[in-house]
Amino acid sequence: MSEVIRPGKFVELTYKVTDRTTGHVLTTVDFPLGYVHGHNEILAPSVHMQLEGKSAGDVIEVAIDGSQIFGPRDESLVFSDDIDNVPEEYRHVGTSILMENDKGQTRSFLVTHMDDERLTVDGNNPLCGRGVVFTLAILTVRDATDVETRAGGAIQAGAAVDPSRLRPV
Question: Is 80 strand, coil or helix?
């Protein structure tokens, strides 16, 4: 009988995120992502709920409304400027720019549009306002070691564990 995902189990998976409307793949994680179920939620809570009871070899799809996770889209976080006012290294669609406001708070903005005259950046999360589907392939389900449980996820063989990063269980 195979192990099923439940709190305290170590899980490795890969996933992709697809836009529900267009079908475009927005993100793909091909390397195994490991975590201890119920100890560190690495994905949206609704994704973790759907993983419960699944086993290695299962592939599941979970539809998510990005607005529920990241809030509604805020158009005040979209800015355009003359291209000549933007440093050369930021003049590429897809470039992430970390900006700071007058209160010292930082936010990541993404260059979303550029032409010969203007450049536009957007501070909304790219999934905000989108319906997406997470497709998850479960690779491993097993009992987590004590070290993994304290750390919240996978520990590389031979890796030094920083005790200050461990939290009680």
Answer: strand
CA distances from 36 to 81, 103, 110, 119 (A): 45, 36, 31, 42
Residue 114 has pLDDT above 60, yes or no: yes
Structure tokens at 138: 């479960």
Total number of domains constituting the chain? 2
99: phi then psi, degrees, rounded to nearest 5: -120, 155
d(CA 60, CA 158): 33
Task: Give the chain's mean pLDDT.
Answer: 86
Mean pLDDT value across residues 72-76 = 89
Phi, psi of 48 (to 5 degrees): -60, -40
pLDDT-derived band of residue 126, with 50, 70 and 90 as boundaries?
confident
Give SS3 for 89.
helix
Looking at the structure, do residues 41 and 113 belong to the same domain, yes or no? Answer: no
Provide DSSP, 110-153: EEEEE-SSEEEEE-S-TTTT-EEEEEEEEEEEEEPPHHHHHHTS
Which pLDDT does position 156 carry in this prediction? Answer: 55
Domain that holds residue 118: 74-122
